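Deliverable D2.4 — example input (C-alpha cells):
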C-alpha cells in the first residue's frame, strides 16, 4: 500500500499564507492601512509565507513517509517518537536556519531581536497543530467504515474475453476490481474467480501487513497473515498463493519478503519457498529418509494443485528452525 492520500494541497497553501501573515502581526500593533500601502510589508509577508510553506511541505512529505512505515494504529508509540522528530524538532531547526539567514542579511541576530523568544514559540505551536491535523486526518481516512474493498466479493466467474482484437496495452485495474491473474507455469493471463476479502482483513492504508500486487497490469492488496498460504520463487520471479488457490506475481525477493514481514509468522522451508505458519498444521516425514513435507490445514489443502505440492518439501538446512518453531507452540 502506498501512503495515505491526504489530498490537501489547497489547505497547505492556505495554511502557509495564514501562518505567515500571523507571524507578522501577532506581536505588533498592526496598522492595516500602513501595511497595505507599504511595499516592504509584501516582501516580508512573502518571505514569511515561503518559510511557512517550506515547513508545511516538509512535514507533509515526512508524514507520508512515516505513514508508509509506521502506522498510527499499529505502531503508535514508535510513530509518536518519529513524528516528533521529523514533524516538530527538525522543522523547528529548519525554521531557525531559514529565518537566521534572512535576519543575517538584515544585520540582525535572532537571539537579540526577539524572534527566538517571541516568534519561535508560535512556530512550535503551529507545528503541533499541523501534526495534530495529520494525526486526526489519518484516522478519519483509515476509519473502517470508509475503507474501500480491494477485491470484489466472489459472485461469479469473470470473463474478460482477451480476444485477438483487444488492445495489447496492459489494463490498469481499479482497486475495487481484480479480474486477472498470472499463471506461473504458462506465463499467460487467465480468467479467474474474483477473490473475496472483508474490510476487516484489508484496511486501505494499513501498509504493515499488506502485500501490494502491481505487476503486468494487476493491482491488488492482500493481508499477508490472513490471505496468503505461501510464497515461492520461480524463474527469478516471486509468486504469492492465496487461500483461494490463486497465484499472483509480485516484485520482491525472499530476503526482502522476510525482512518486510518479519513481525508475521512466516517460515522459509527451502531455497525457493516461504510458508505462512498460520496456514499449516505441522510437518511429516517424506518418502525419502530424512526428508520432511509441510502439512496444510484442511481448508487450504484442497486449494493447492497437485503440481504445486512439490513446493512443500523441507530441505535439511531449514528443518531445525521449523522444528523449533513448532516446539514453541
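Example output (designed residues):
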Amino acid at each position: 500500500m502506498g501512503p495515505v492520500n491526504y489530498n490537501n494541497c489547497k489547505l497547505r497553501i492556505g495554511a502557509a499564507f495564514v501562518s505567515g501573515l500571523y507571524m507578522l502581526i501577532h506581536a505588533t500593533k498592526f496598522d492595516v492601512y500602513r501595511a497595505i500601502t507599504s511595499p516592504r510589508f509584501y516582501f516580508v509577508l512573502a518571505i514569511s509565507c515561503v518559510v511557512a510553506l517550506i515547513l508545511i511541505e516538509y512535514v507533509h512529505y515526512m508524514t507520508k513517509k512515516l505513514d508508509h512505515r509506521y502506522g498510527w494504529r499499529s505502531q503508535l508509540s514508535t510513530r509518536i517518537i518519529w513524528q516528533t522528530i521529523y514533524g516538530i524538532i527538525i522543522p523547528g531547526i529548519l525554521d531557525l536556519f531559514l529565518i537566521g539567514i534572512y535576519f543575517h542579511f538584515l544585520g540582525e541576530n535572532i537571539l537579540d531581536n526577539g524572534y527566538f523568544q517571541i516568534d519561535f514559540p508560535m512556530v512550535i505551536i503551529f507545528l503541533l497543530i499541523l501534526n495534530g491535523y495529520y494525526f486526526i486526518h489519518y484516522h478519519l481516512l483509515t476509519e473502517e467504515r470508509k475503507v474501500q474493498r480491494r477485491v470484489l466479493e466472489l459472485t461469479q466467474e469473470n470473463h474478460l474475453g482477451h480476444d485477438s482484437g483487444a488492445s495489447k496495452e496492459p489494463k490498469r485495474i481499479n482497486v475495487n476490481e481484480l479480474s486477472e491473474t498470472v499463471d506461473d507455469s504458462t506465463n499467460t493471463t487467465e480468467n479467474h474467480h474474483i477473490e473475496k476479502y472483508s474490510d476487516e482483513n484489508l484496511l486501505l492504508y494499513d501498509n504493515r501487513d499488506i502485500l501490494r500486487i502491481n505487476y503486468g497490469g494487476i493491482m491488488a492488496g492482500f493481508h499477508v497473515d490472513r490471505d496468503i498460504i505461501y510464497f515461492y520463487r520461480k524463474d527469478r520471479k516471486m509468486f504469492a498463493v492465496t487461500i483461494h488457490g490463486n497465484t499472483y506475481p509480485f516484485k520482491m525477493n525472499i530476503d526482502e519478503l522476510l525482512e518486510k514481514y518479519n513481525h508475521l509468522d512466516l517460515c522459509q522451508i527451502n531455497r525457493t519457498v516461504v510458508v505462512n505458519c498460520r496456514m499449516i498444521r505441522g510437518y511429516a516425514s517424506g518418502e525419502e529418509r530424512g526428508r520432511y513435507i509441510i502439512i496444510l490445514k484442511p481448508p487450504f489443502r484442497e486449494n493447492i494443485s497437485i503440481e504445486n505440492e512439490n513446493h512443500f518439501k523441507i530441505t535439511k538446512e531449514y528443518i531445525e528452525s521449523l522444528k523449533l518453531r513448532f516446539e514453541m507452540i
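The radius of gyration is 27 Å.
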